[in-house]
Specification:
Blueprint lengths: L20 H18 L15 E2 H13 L3 H15 L10 E2 L14 H18 L2 H17 L1 E4 L2 E4 L16 E2 L6 H7 L8 H14 L12 E2 L6 E2 L6 E2 L5 H9 L8 H7 E2 L2 E2 L1 E5 L4 E6 L2 H15 L15 H17 L2 H4 L3
Antiparallel strand pairs: 1-2, 3-4, 5-6, 6-7, 8-11, 9-10, 11-12
Helix pairs in contact: 1-2, 1-11, 2-3, 2-4, 2-11, 4-5, 4-6, 6-7, 6-8, 8-11, 10-11
Length: 352
């Protein structure tokens, strides 16, 4: 289920390139460690740092990883909980946050667009691997509502709103607002195969263009939250002007999607790769100063993936050494493993 070779048919098959077997074994082993740490018996992924809440994005990530590891029982458990607990809106989008300490557990039924894309993507891949049609109809339903409620026309092309409520021009004084880490480029690309009305190519082109334009301050990095008001790309008024824990995912999705946009990865590599190793920080884009450090191994593993995607060099196999710590950095670590195993497997198995 790694080394995905997508055909142009409506429901293409997933094929495994024999060169990826060793990389696939690494991902499978990491998934079982991840599942033991973060998946509870009910089927939800637990964010151990934020009060043990669960997110639609976390459910989508886990479903995607379960498919990659050919863990159907794990996938079905996660998907069943997600259906029952998060798909409670009057459409086919998932509520973004579930809190075990609240009653009801969902107090905000707004969605998170990246979570919806990830869930639909995982369902598509599940259909391709396990050949159960029930998965694909759910994916198409999600895509339909993403098309109708979350995609807007801008001077830059079609763009993704981060959620159905609160981000449009009429909702914010500097709206519309976007978050480039919600552009899950490989998901958008594959999902275009199952819905002829889904504007996958235009969304990708817009996203790549916005990544190029969203270069701020001495670091040249993008902010977590951006405004597209007045036909410009600028820092959102009511959010911290930071490159941080959201936008760190942008290079992950870029490298996972394609090796044809290495120039877009250069600012991240320049910022992260230092003389004595990796240095990942939250950066105030107005002055270029660090306001926090990302020290967990999962963040450094993501940097390892980005660097290797650019030049084929890994840093002492840092990315191979997966050991779960906290939910978010561990998720980024295992996603980096999955991305690199699909597109740059020699970075994992050292066959240069």
């Amino acid at each position: 289920m790694l080394g995905v070779l997508m055909s142009t048919s409506a429901l293409p098959s997933l094929a495994v390139n024999t060169a990826n077997y060793a990389a696939q074994d690494i991902v499978i082993g990491a998934w079982h460690l991840y599942k033991a740490r973060f998946l509870d018996e009910s089927g939800r992924i637990v964010d151990n740092v934020n009060g043990d809440i669960s997110h639609s994005e976390g459910q989508g990530y886990a479903m995607l990883l379960a498919v990659a590891a050919n863990d159907k029982s794990g996938f079905d458990k996660i998907w069943l909980w997600t259906q029952q607990e998060l798909f409670i809106r009057d459409d086919h989008l998932a509520a973004w946050r579930w809190d075990p300490n609240e009653s009801p557990n969902v107090t905000d039924i707004n969605n998170a667009t990246d979570g919806d894309l990830l869930i639909a993507w995982a369902l598509l891949r599940a259909r391709l691997v396990w050949r159960e049609d029930r998965y694909i109809q759910h994916a198409r339903n999600i895509l339909k509502d993403i098309r109708q409620k979350l995609i807007i026309k801008t001077s830059f092309g079609r763009a993704l709103l981060p959620g159905a409520n609160g981000f449009k021009a009429e909702d914010q004084s500097d709206g519309p607002l976007i978050n480039l880490s919600y552009w899950v480029f490989p998901a958008i690309s594959e999902l275009g195969l199952i819905d002829p009305l889904f504007p996958d190519r235009e969304l990708i082109e817009t996203g790549l263009s916005l990544v190029r334009k969203a270069s701020f301050g001495p670091s040249g990095l993008p902010a977590n939250w951006l405004s597209l008001a007045d036909n410009t790309v600028k820092l959102a008024e009511n959010f911290d002007p930071f490159f941080g824990y959201d936008s760190i995912r942008i290079p992950l999705y870029l490298a996972w999607y394609s090796n044809e946009h290495m120039d877009l990865l250069t600012p991240y590599a320049n910022e992260w790769v230092k003389e004595r190793g990796y240095s990942l920080k939250v950066v105030d884009l107005q002055n270029g100063k660090a306001v926090g450090a990302m020290t967990d191994a999962g963040y450094r593993a993501l940097a390892d993936m980005v660097v290797c995607s650019m030049n084929g060099v890994v840093s002492d196999n840092l990315i191979n050494n997966f050991s779960p710590t906290d939910y978010y950095p561990s998720t980024l670590h295992i996603l980096s493993l999955l991305a690199i195993s699909e597109r740059y497997p020699t970075c994992l198995i050292n066959q240069y």
